[in-house]
Design a protein that fits this description.
homotetramer, 143 residues, alpha+beta, Cytidine Deaminase, domain 2, 22% strand, globular
Amino acid sequence: MNDEAIDVEAMFDAARAVQAKAHAPYSRFPVGAAVLTDRGNIYAGCNVENASYPLGSCAEASAISAMVAAGEYRIVAVLTVCEGEQLSTCCGGCRQRIREFAALDTPVYAAGPEGVRAAFTMEQLLPASFGPEHLVGFGGHRS
Amino acid sequence: MNDEAIDVEAMFDAARAVQAKAHAPYSRFPVGAAVLTDRGNIYAGCNVENASYPLGSCAEASAISAMVAAGEYRIVAVLTVCEGEQLSTCCGGCRQRIREFAALDTPVYAAGPEGVRAAFTMEQLLPASFGPEHLVGFGGHRS
Amino acid sequence: MNDEAIDVEAMFDAARAVQAKAHAPYSRFPVGAAVLTDRGNIYAGCNVENASYPLGSCAEASAISAMVAAGEYRIVAVLTVCEGEQLSTCCGGCRQRIREFAALDTPVYAAGPEGVRAAFTMEQLLPASFGPEHLVGFGGHRS
Amino acid sequence: MNDEAIDVEAMFDAARAVQAKAHAPYSRFPVGAAVLTDRGNIYAGCNVENASYPLGSCAEASAISAMVAAGEYRIVAVLTVCEGEQLSTCCGGCRQRIREFAALDTPVYAAGPEGVRAAFTMEQLLPASFGPEHLVGFGGHRS
C-alpha cells in the first residue's frame, strides 16, 4: 500500500476520538492510537494506566489488541495522537509491538491535537531491530 | 449485579471466539478473555505475544483495553478460557489489571474449552491488594 | 526453611536501604524489596520508573533480577517496604514474578517505614495461581 | 566520557558472565547486559522470564535495576550479548529503558558470543524519542 492510499485523516479521527476515553489518572497524559491493516480496516486504542504503573497498556498496544482480536495481523500504517507542544512519538516498547506486525517501510504518523506533525517509517523509528526471526532455532519459536 | 444476572454463557462464547484469534507463536498457549461491564456490555480480547516477551499483552489486558476504548470503566464479571487439562486462572498481572476497574466481589470465571471450571471473586484471587488508593497523597495520583 | 530461621530484620534493613535509591519521579512512591534465597543470601531492589510507565520495573522485579544475576533461583522469603499509613502489599504482577521462584508456603512480609505490618504466604497472596506447569506440553516450555 | 575511555572488554566480560545465569526456559534465548555509569562502575543483568511472558524482565532492565539499587543514575555506555548468528540489538522496550538514564550520544554495543559486532548511539537506536520531558506540565511528573 503506498502512502497515497492511506486515509490519514480517518486514522487521526479514530485516534483522536479514542484518546478522549483514556484511563490516565496517573500520568494525566492521554494518548490515542490507530492502526490501519492490509484489509483497509482501522483499529483504535488508548492508554490504560494501572496503579501498579508497569501493568498499564500503551495506546498502541490497545490498538494492536483490537486488531488481533478481529483476526487481523498486518499493519500498514500507524498514527498516534498526544497532547502538548512537543512532538511525541511512540515509546520504544510500542515501536517493538508494532514491529511484530509491520514492515520496515510501514509509516508511523505522530500527531498533536491539531493534526499530524511528523511521519516516520518503522525502520527510522526502530533501526537494526530485534524481532521474531532472532528467536528461530532457539526453541521458543517454531512458527 | 448479582450472579444470576450474569450471562456467563455469552461471556464464554465471546472469550472462546476471540481465543482463536490469539497471536501466540511463542508460548503456543492461546487465551481468550471477556469482561462484562455495569452497562451490560461484553468486551473480549486475546493474548498478543511479542518476540520481546515482556512486551506482549495478556488476553485480559486486551479485553480491558477494548472496554476502555469504548468509554466504559466498571467491570462486573470476568471470564478467561485456556487450553489444557489443568485449571488456569488469570496471572497475577491480570488480577491487578482487573482490580483497577472491579470490586472485591466481582466474579472471575476460569474456563477450559468445554466450559467454566471454577469461579472466584476478585478478593479471593487478589487478597490484601495494592490499588489506586495507595498512591493518593504521593503526587502521582490526584483524581 | 522455617520462619524462625528467617532474619526478617536483615531483610527489612536491606529493603529499607534500597528503597532510598528508587527512581520514582512519576509516582513519587518509592518501594524497596528484599528476597532471601535458599542459600541464605539476601538480594534487594527498588522500583525503577520510566516516562513510558509500562516499561518501569517494580522493586520486587529488581530484587529478583539481582538474585538471578547471582545465579540463584530459589526464594524462601520476601519483604517489601512502602511509605504511607495503609498496608501495601506486592502488586499482582510481582506476586506472579515471585511465584516463578517460590513455593506456596513462602512467606511475604509487608512493611512500612517502622517495620513489618503483616505477613502472608504466597498461597494466600496468589491462590489458584497460574505457573510454569500450565505451559508444559504447549511448545513454549520444555524444561 | 569519550569512546576511548570505555572499557568495552570489561563490559563484555561482565555481560557474558551474567548471560550464563539467565532464567530463560521459555525463549531459550539467554541475554546478558552491562551498563557503565558516569562513576566508572559496571552493572550487569540477564533476562528473567516468567510463565506469564509479559511479566518477564529483559537483561537491560535487570542491569539498570542493579545500577539504580546502587544509587547510580547516569549511563554512559551499554553492551548486550546474545547467542545466534544474527546481529541482535536491544528490543524497543529496552531502548526506552536506557533512554531514561542516558544521553543521545551514549554508545550501545551489540555483541555475540565472540565479541562486539556493532556499535550504535542511543539516538541511532531510538530517534525522535519520547521521554520524561514530554510529561512535564501534565501532572504525573514534577521533578
